[in-house]
Write a structure and sequence with these properties.
The chain is of the alpha+beta class and 1100 residues long. It has 35 helices and 46 strands. The protein has 6 domains: 124 residues, Cathepsin D, subunit A, domain 1 (Beta Barrel), CATH 2.40.70.10; 237 residues, HIV Type 1 Reverse Transcriptase, subunit A, domain 1 (HIV Type 1 Reverse Transcriptase, Chain A, domain 1), CATH 3.10.10; 201 residues, 2-Layer Sandwich (Nucleotidyltransferase, domain 5); 116 residues, Orthogonal Bundle (Endonuclease III, domain 1), CATH 1.10.340; 167 residues, 2-Layer Sandwich (Nucleotidyltransferase, domain 5), CATH 3.30.420; 50 residues, SH3 type barrels, CATH 2.30.30.140. The radius of gyration is 45 Å and the shape is flat. GO terms for molecular function: nucleic acid binding.
Length: 1100
Amino acid sequence: MNHWEKCCRLKKQEQESKQQWQRKQEATKTYPKRSQAQRSKRLHEMKEEEETEETDDMRFETICVDQIRKNEAFAVIGVEIGRGPATLKAKVDTGSEGNILPLRIYQKMYPDRVDSNGEPITGKLRKSPITITGYGEKSVIPQVGLHTLSCNHQDRQANVEFFVVKTQRPAILGLELCLDLGLVVLNCSLMESHDSPIKDREHLKTLYPDRFDGIGKFDGKYHIVIDKDAAPVIHAVRRCPIGIKDDIKKELDEMESLEVIESVTKPTDWVSSLAYTQKPNGRWRICLDPKDLNKAIKRSHMPMPTIEEVRHQFEGATVFSTLDARHGYWAIQLDEESSHLTTFNSPFGRYRFKRLPFGLCVSQDVFQQRMNQILEKCPGVIGMADDIAVVGKTAVEHDANLHNLMRVAKEHGLVLNWNKCHIKQDRVRFYGLVFSKDGVQPDPQKTAAISALNAPQNVTELREFLGIVTYMSPFIPRLASLTAPLRELVKKDVIYSWTESHQKVFETIKDMIRKETTLAYFDPKKPVVLEVDASMKGVGAALTQEGRPIAFASKSLTDTEQRYANIEREMLAVVYACEKFHTFVFGRSFTILSDHKPLEMITLKNLGAAPPRLQRLLLRLQGYDMTVKYKPGKEMLLSDAMSRLNPLPPESPEMHMKVDFVMFSDKKLLEIRTATSEDCELCILRDVILEGWPEERRKLDKSLIKYWPYRDEMSIEDGIILKGSRIVIPKCLTKEYLNKLHEGHQGIIKCQLRAKSCIFWNGINQEIEMMVRKCSVCQEYGNSLPSETLQPHEIPVRPWQFVTTDLFTLDGREYLLVADVYSKYPIVKQLPQQATSSAVIRLLKEIFSEQGTPERLMSDNGPQYNSAIFVEFARDWNFQHVTSSPRYPQSNGFIERQVQTVKNTMKKAKRDNIGVNKALQCLRATPLDSHLPSPAELLLGRKIQTNIPTRIRNQSPQKDDIYQRLQTRQDDQKKYFDDKHATNLPPLHKGQEVRIQNQETGRWDRGKITNRRPEPRSYEVETSSGYTLRRNRRHIKPTQERDSMEQNRQHASDRHNDAHDQQNAQTEQTQSKPDTPSNHHQPYTTRSGRTIKKPERYDM
């Protein structure tokens, strides 16, 4: 009762019981007069039901299987075999009409019931006349007989018959046994015919559930054509607010799971920035900021149809539906080459789009072309961008057209947005018009802003209304003559008094403007211009073509929006206009006219140069191909009046706007806010930012002229003035922050770099430069420059791959310095009084245990690094140890420069009575230059907190970009040095007569080149006394003297013999006094030329 006949379970159970009884009767019957072919029956059958005239049919939707492996379903059931319980693994086959037990399994289950040949003993199995074949096969599967087996699964039990057959296939459980044991469950449901009447949106989703799930996938792949002359552009990673970082990562992960994007690890020529906008539901839309890429793309223009071209398809229609393509652009696949063009940077690495992304200049053209190809197969269907309208003169015709659309959508991979579908309506809004059975009518929303205008309350508001009338007068006959009574009120010496007659004229003029505006149709082939304006009350916009208004819009500002800076309110008007008229402007180029000139400049700058709130507004405009142009306010009659004369209430809650402050403490922010309010100049500046900058510089207050170049970057947040993301410091606090910037006694550029990331006031760079130049501490410890051409080391590709080390002394104490060549990060350790090789190794082991073992370590040839235990240390810790040229520290100039910087920093810190560690912290936290982060960020992957409030973010550096910057920086240093005064000395050859400079006396001794070392500019020289020394080319000069080395060597030998005789005489004299201890030892010289004095010890 109250159910479909085909879904009746009682009737189905009765039929199954009857069929089971018939099969048992057939199995026990004898057939003396029937042939074997007549008694043949297949195990698997195909039964076709007779088609009825009903539109409803039955289907199985779900089959739940106990266990599944690979492409087959298996189940393990319990069986009773006489000796006790056992288990049987069998295949679940719901298409089988019986159960199969292979003979090999029967032999294992009942070994006492088979003979020596493995055949069942006669009488143990019952005979069966049924012939068994596989589905679709003609060959017969040989059966031995029938065997009844007691089976159980979980809490169910059944005694069933198995056909024992000779096969190598697994045992099979038929549908009937599977149902008895609960191995499968059949869920049946009614599926209506796809030609049945459609009731509503929910009914349509029931009929075509797959058309409202997932994302679409059109056939073929699109190739983006690039101008060959365009230079590739690689954008750096944009900063992402910490509060939404997890949400952005979640969206990226979801897009990657949908195969919309893919992670990129190999280098690509084009890398765009990541852009994201918040949807009304709170989620984030991920798209590109392909400003540079769009300039290089060759666009395939696809004009959109005009309303006149599609209007005839609505003639006579009485039933309407509108649908919307879901993630329309993502339905278009990109080929491999085009996919790499869409690579973008994110805080979580690089990705590339595998589907057509939102934001490309060709996206709308390509999508419109594909939609036209799909919808041309669908009569009664009109498509404009991602909007689809289905019409019909009758409900039957409409449903047929809609069914056809859904079938074509499935064929071509088009997926629809169920939430934006409106099914079987008597009137629909489509492309700015309202269609119904009565015909086409203008959209009332186009003139809602005009209808909402209240009577002017003063002369100023009346002049703004008359501005609209003046603009519209060329399109409306006799409109100007009607305004004569209103113009009388704006004359001088006339008291403003609004009467009933004025109100009547006012309403008549509004009706005429509404009527003229609603009769103007939008033409996609004509240029589009949006006039926008913002006031303290609201924002207004007007859509025009060839000067003729098409639609008006306005909205009032919330309390929070009214506190925006003027440039932010003007940008808010642009965003509101684009989103309000999205149907008309999306996917095409158009012009924005604004009376705020800074908007024209800020849209041309890099997104990172804008203040935080403007950045978020600009991100919402990334998908629009617009050009902002300036137009004087006196000519902006339409939008100016819309923004001031009773704008409509907000259509949506306050927009998501979040400003991330630099991490100042609450106390500091209060101090800056209080000082700002007491600074007369900044108070005037604050008022100008809120009310708007004048159109000309000469109209600005003289004290603010210096801020004119930054006017498009100035904003206000909670009483604090910002330039971009930098806080403007009041004049009374500048000295304090100057001292903080120079607290580590760093140079001019470093101090300016620190200031560039957090604070600003006019002339800050000049004051920093003057302060550093006048700093007595910095002047006292000035540095000198080397004088030979630079031979740079190879830049490593990752941090802590190549490190250098050296020792230095400060205030009688020795220190070990280890610096990373990649990040320039210095590590300083104090050595004990005995700076032995063991002490150095012990400290190096501590550092390596924290930072890891480098691939290469470079040092000088000091005894601490040239000992046997250090060689063993390098072999044990598995790193390459290289040394610089003796007596030539410039060959390892990087570590020498690090020693200079660290020593001077420590000296200045002690002189200024600040902590050494604090000064070193400032050194490690200061950016290397304007394009490179600080050493701490390069090595540790994060910023460190210092005495200056800093915004600390968790983001990994980009190795490729940093590598290029380092290489460029080093090349510039080399070029600067080489061009100044450096020259290269000619090489020397083996056997050449030379002179060697003695570093202690400054004299040049005779020598001969014996070997050229593999190290740069390094040679082995034999001196006149027979010693072999290693020296750099700078300490060796060729000579053309004619006297031979042998004469010098002979003279040196004579001098040596005389000295030896003198020493023997002294020794004999000493031995004659055995009771007097010897407290003085003669010094001796090593092979490298160093004088060593033996330690004095007591004779024990």
